[in-house]
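Feature request disguised as a bug report, sorry. It would help if multi-protein outputs had a clear separator. Right now it looks like this:
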Amino acid sequence: MKELLARAPHPHRFIGHPPQGATDLASLLRGHPLRQAAKSLVIRVALPGKKRQYVLAVVRGDHRVDLGAVAAVMGGVRAGFADRATAERLTGCVSGSIIPFSFHPDLHVVVDPGLLEQDEIYFNAARLDQSVALSAHAYRALAEPRVAPIADRAGSTERCAPPVARAA
């Protein structure tokens, strides 16, 4: 991912912080509203004919993934969370630090449009102690995700992070 960001013409910044994989706590450490966090989860979708497909579902940090919506978007009959070993194998990231990009041909990225409404998004940088801040527009251009409503907005858990002093 660092190579992708280094080659891209889009501004971004890396943010160091104590190790944290929980979206809400990482957002507090980074100092931004939870709605700006890109929460990335690997979902296993059961397709007709006993086939399966894996999806990297990316939603706002204050929403939950709607598994039924993910299954429907992918033409599946049901969906569930992938086991930890599979998620880590497909993403190359330890659980809690999964980036909202896929570099594996068997992992398809689907992002909820609510995340793309944010000016800037934040996510762990495939490490628990470092994050990335990037414009949502740049993320969409770099990741080239499928965009579909896959968030359960009823499960919203928005909490505001306290402001963080930033160097001028």
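(second protein starts here, but nothing in the output says so)
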Amino acid sequence: MNPVFSSTVDLAAAIHNRKISAVEALDAHLAQIDSHNAAINAVISFDREGAHERARQADAALAHGEAPGPLHGVPFTLKDMHETSGMKTTVGFPPFADYVASHDSPVVVRLKAAGGVLMAKTNVATMLSDWQSNNPLFGRTGNPWNLERTAGGSSGGAAAAVATGMTPFDVGTDMQDSIRLPAAFCGVYGLKPTENRVSLAGAFPNPGGAARSVRLMSCLGPLARSVDDLALIYQIIAGPDGHDTDLAPVQVEAMPKLDLKTLRIAFAPSFPGFPVAGEISAAVESLARQLQGAGAVVEEAKLPKLDLHDDLAQGGALIGMMMEAAQPKPPEQPTSVSRWFEALARRDRSILIWDSFFDRHDALLCPVAMTTAFPHCEPGTPIKVDGKEQSYWMLPAYGAVFNYSGHPALSMPCGQDSNGLPIGLQLVGKRWSESRLLGIAAAIEPVTGGFRRPPGY
């Protein structure tokens, strides 16, 4: 087997069955990083010594007959925003350059308890605030399909590392398409769960122990090379953890095996007023036809009667108010409580309208972003889409709609454009139905062909 491009599920099984040792799996991934990372700059902080010790312990445990966890001995990376004991967590922000948390975040605790071997961190946008992964501490991450183009952000290092076999999986954050957009740009899978499904505790460096300001729209979720891997990691990290009180006590179910012939799929090649490259909208239509030919009930979506541009603006306003509330301010400049509640009421209306849509459809197939990976540029630079300049700030629009509504959504690779760059399409489902959404994606995966390795890796 080739451990660096094996699925997480297969690699865990191979270690469990002692076809490969945990140390061998780790060394293979570190060698892949050493061979390719200098050009891509996806992996930015290491714990080689600690990872080797944990891998040796994993092998010894198997030798003594101890029951393995679902990730026993599997090496992995994490986006540089999770608090980790003994490793720096910087979010690419100079004031956090030397910050080391005193303990692991709940998500890290769960991954380690499942037997995972954390070996390194992956690059991000500064403070997770852009759709390119570039920062003053570690520089920029290139796209493995074309180094002159971005891997996306803010989880760009994670997506590039997964795509190139440097890691079997990673866990990113998604407040405005920050998992799905880089997953699409790099040709891998990425899941944004329903809001309040995965703990946000310790999901950002917090040296001073300040009150957590991000309470809405942000989600943690896995990036991987298969739907099965997304499902495995999601089941490990999801659910109440005793730290994040916002988490819903909803059962995390196993991914069901679904037949395409039982599914009702709506598709939207674009959203009203949202720009999109013609090759992306054509990929949506092509996949819809293939699914219909395979027996699914497919129809072009009658999208909810919402002003989606206004939803994006309202989502941005809520993010701004959360950030504002987190900053010290003089008494004469209080945060407007009434403005906050009005914004939440507006959001509730949008959520309920989308809920009604998903009562009629099992999933919505649509673009992840308005373009495939674009050339590195200064944030704010207009982006060319089919030769026409479009606003940089519309890059995450198709994904951000579902951060605002809280619905689960995933990005899945679906071929390449005429420049040889991956096209990622988005699949969106009913709230609290991640497992079913993953089952739908698994049923579709054979039609799309799944993950394709970038040339040269």
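Even a blank line would do. Unrelated, but nice: The first helix runs from residue 8 to 16.
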